[in-house]
Design goal:
Layout (H helix, E strand, L loop, with lengths): L1 E9 L6 E6 L5 H14 L7 E2 L9 E9 L2 E8 L5 H13 L2
Helix pairs in contact: 1-2
Length: 98
């Protein structure tokens, strides 16, 4: 069972927002897509910070935590430095979580 927590901060207004997603709440196809994107990004092998997480003007910073069984990993990344698979993963989480 996989659980993800996504935190976004910054942007024009400097607001923070959080999404939480449990794999069991997703349709099977969405859960497979989320796992595929995380695998494609090599998420569990990424360093805890990708690129510069300093405050880039008007951009968002993301913190993504994934718990999958015994594995747990957190990655922080500024929007301009997001690798494409991680960007797609974040989009899927934001569109699927409550």
């Amino acid at each position: 069972m996989m659980r993800v927590i996504l935190k976004r901060s910054g942007g024009l207004m400097g607001l923070s927002r959080q999404w939480e997603l449990d794999e069991r709440a997703l349709a099977p196809a969405k859960a497979q897509e989320l796992r595929r994107l995380l695998d494609q990004a090599g998420f569990f092998a990424l360093p805890s910070e990708v690129g510069s997480v300093g405050r880039a003007r008007d951009s968002f910073s993301y913190q993504l935590t994934v718990e999958d069984g015994e594995r747990k990993h957190t990655v922080r990344c500024a929007e301009p430095a997001l690798p494409p698979p991680l960007r797609s993963c974040i989009g899927l989480i934001m569109g699927s979580a409550r």
